[in-house]
């Protein structure tokens, strides 16, 4: 049996619908009336019986057939009919009740569905560990300092946890586990927890907490790294006195191959303040306005973070004493290359830009593997360090050819100026324009037209032996006189002896045996240089496998071991053209090796050379 109103199933004996509340009698009467109608229609097919309308009330008959008696017994009693009529009379209130019942039912169903969905979601997304029914996958594994941090993270992830590894400098070797940051070993945690693991980066200087701190504060940190610590006392501005003003490695970097940490504490004393490093160039110059020396600003190649900021000085930052003048270097990119290396001079009512300023390349340059080049000014016997004007620094030497005092012999074994290993930006010459950037409007400036500085890539060449040819192992200056090469032997012309001069000049081997040798040669590539254009021009032998980091200035150093020919004989009577350096006639032989991230010597941007500063163990 089903409810007439809502269609829900009704059990036997129910007087009302369990869902909508409608009376069962309503449904029974309708069903019974339909059954009576069906029976009467069947009887109407018999001619002897009277047809009774389906909805007509049947009066009491004195005589009834058996069938009529049965039908009569199933019809409602007068009281039941009255109830039915009352229901029809009250039909409108019932309809309102039905609507209310339907609304209530809908609300109940909605609540049930929401609860069911919530139960389903949490059943799906919350692990058993979080409610304590299955604790094993949610147990934080035990670990001790020095364990492999990556292996611990992998174990956690295999157990359903997410992890975040945070690196920190410490005395433990790189990759070692230090501690959990937000959980305890052996504790039970939901696998939805992000477990933070502290992993060692090895010894180093943290980005914060050392530079700018007091000595006591900084000491606790650097001593915890488990490596030797050297303390330097350096000049500083008054505001920085008593504080750590510099460190090596720089803040945020790991200890180098030397395995030592250097820290410098500022002091009120004469000299070049170390804490100018990284300051705005104009602000730094103003800070020195009260000092008893002249302050000049000069551009120097740097990484972008130091553009317009102080990256060094001459004399170097931290130099003690009373210099007459101080040059502060500020960072620039390739757009200022000509400003970095040239000195303007008047020449025949025109301006010639002489490529002579080598001072801005002083410093340390290192490959990522730790191989370094340190460039220093070439000093002569009676010349004191930092004594010369920065403007006069035209020659540099790498420290790998210098003695412990940073010098090379002033003279060769013949008493002439020693040029072996000395690096310059040009090949010299008798006329100032021989050292000038090529300018078609400047007479006699063709000598440097094949140098990179005369182009637009922004790169610069720094090399040795540009104005030198050899004979019998001796250097001879191509711009000089008073010598010759006789069958490969260097011969000096005598002074005031015309007869001897004629004899030498008439020798069968006169002027024979000259040759050029490949010497030290570097290319300096600043940030913003047109590196791809340089590579595609054929300047190098091959192309990079891994392009150098173009966000840092770097040096490429030529390797003679990669060449089949490192010596070229001079043909008798031909022009003096050194094939190993750029000349008026041609570029240098293609540069090898091809530039690569592995062979690029990147500028080490530190306040000063720590090796030049006395120190004490901390």
Kindly describe this structure.
- It is a single chain.
- The chain has 618 residues and is α+β, with helices and mostly antiparallel strands.
- Among the domains are: 67 residues, 2-Layer Sandwich (Trypsin Inhibitor V, Chain A), CATH 3.30.10.20; 215 residues, no CATH class.
- It has 10 helices and 27 strands.
- A 7-stranded antiparallel beta sheet has the order 16-15-14-26-24-23-17, with no helix packed on it.
- A hairpin with a 2-residue loop joins strand 18 and strand 19.
- The longest helix has 35 residues.
- The protein is elongated.
- About 13% of the residues have low confidence.
Residues in helices, as a percent range: 10-25%
Sketch the major β-sheet: 7 strands, antiparallel
Low-confidence stretches: 26-93, 126-136
The SS-based structural class is alpha+beta
The order of strands across the largest sheet is: 16-15-14-26-24-23-17
Look at the structure and give the mean pLDDT: 83
* Gross geometry: elongated
What fraction of residues sit in β-strands? 15-25%
The separation of the N and C termini measures 98 Å
Q: Quickly count the helices.
A: 10
Let me know the number of strands.
Answer: 27
Task: Please state the CA-atom Rg, rounded to the nearest Å.
Answer: 49 Å
């Amino acid at each position: 049996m089903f409810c007439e109103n809502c269609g829900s199933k009704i059990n036997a004996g129910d007087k009302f619908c369990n869902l909508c509340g409608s009376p069962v009698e309503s449904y029974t009467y309708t069903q019974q009336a339909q059954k009576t109608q069906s029976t009467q229609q069947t009887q109407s097919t018999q001619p002897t019986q009277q047809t009774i309308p389906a909805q007509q009330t049947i009066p009491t008959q004195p005589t009834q057939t058996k069938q009529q008696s049965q039908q009569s017994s199933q019809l409602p009693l007068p009281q039941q009919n009255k109830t039915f009529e009352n229901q029809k009379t009250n039909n409108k209130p019932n309809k309102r009740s039905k609507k209310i019942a339907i609304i209530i039912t809908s609300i109940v169903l909605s609540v049930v569905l929401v609860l069911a969905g919530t139960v389903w979601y949490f059943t799906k997304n919350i692990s058993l560990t979080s409610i304590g029914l299955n604790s094993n996958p949610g147990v934080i594994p035990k670990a001790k300092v020095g364990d492999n941090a990556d292996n611990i993270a992998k174990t956690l992830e295999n157990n359903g946890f997410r992890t975040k590894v945070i690196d920190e400098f410490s005395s433990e070797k790189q990759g070692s586990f230090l501690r959990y940051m937000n959980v305890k070993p052996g504790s039970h945690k939901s696998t939805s927890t992000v477990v933070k693991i502290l992993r060692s980066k090895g010894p180093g200087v943290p980005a914060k907490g050392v530079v700018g701190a007091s000595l006591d504060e900084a000491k606790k940190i650097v001593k915890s790294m488990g490596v030797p610590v050297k303390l330097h006392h350096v000049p500083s501005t008054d505001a920085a006195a008593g504080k750590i003003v510099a460190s090596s490695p720089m803040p945020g970097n790991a200890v180098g191959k030397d395995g030592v940490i250097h820290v410098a504490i500022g002091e009120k004393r004469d000299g070049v303040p170390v804490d100018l490093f990284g300051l705005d160039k104009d602000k730094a110059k103003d800070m020195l306005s009260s000092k008893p020396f002249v302050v000049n600003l000069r551009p120097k190649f740097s990484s972008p973070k130091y553009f317009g900021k102080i990256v060094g000085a001459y004399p170097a930052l931290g130099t003690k004493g009373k210099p007459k003048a101080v040059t502060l270097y500020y960072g620039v990119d390739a757009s200022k290359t000509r400003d970095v290396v040239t000195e303007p001079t008047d020449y025949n009512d025109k301006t010639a830009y002489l490529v002579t300023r080598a001072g801005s390349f002083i410093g340390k340059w290192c490959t990522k593997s730790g191989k370094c080049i340190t460039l220093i000014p070439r000093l002569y016997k009676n010349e004191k360090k930092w004594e010369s004007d920065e403007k006069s620094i035209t020659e540099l030497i790498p420290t790998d050819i210098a003695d412990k005092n940073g010098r090379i012999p002033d003279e060769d074994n013949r008493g002439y100026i020693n040029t072996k290993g000395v690096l310059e930006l040009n090949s010299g010459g008798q006329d100032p324009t021989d050292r000038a950037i090529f300018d078609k409007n400047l007479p006699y400036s063709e000598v440097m037209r094949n140098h990179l500085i005369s182009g637009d890539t922004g790169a610069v060449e720094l090399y040795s032996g540009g104005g030198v040819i050899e004979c019998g192992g001796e250097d001879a200056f191509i711009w000089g006189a008073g010598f010759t090469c006789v069958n490969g032997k260097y011969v000096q012309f005598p002074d005031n002896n015309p007869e001897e001069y004629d004899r030498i000049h008439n020798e069968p081997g006169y002027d024979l045996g000259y040759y050029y040798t490949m010497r030290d040669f570097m290319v300096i590539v600043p940030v913003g240089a047109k590196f791809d254009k340089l590579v595609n021009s054929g300047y190098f032998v091959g192309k990079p496998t891994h392009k150098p980091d173009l966000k840092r200035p770097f040096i490429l150093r030529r390797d003679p071991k990669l060449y089949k020919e490192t010596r070229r004989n001079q043909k008798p009577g031909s022009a003096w053209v050194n094939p190993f350096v750029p000349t008026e006639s041609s570029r240098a032989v293609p540069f090898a090796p091809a530039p690569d991230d592995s062979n690029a010597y990147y500028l080490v941007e530190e306040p000063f050379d720590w090796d030049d500063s006395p120190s004490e163990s901390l």
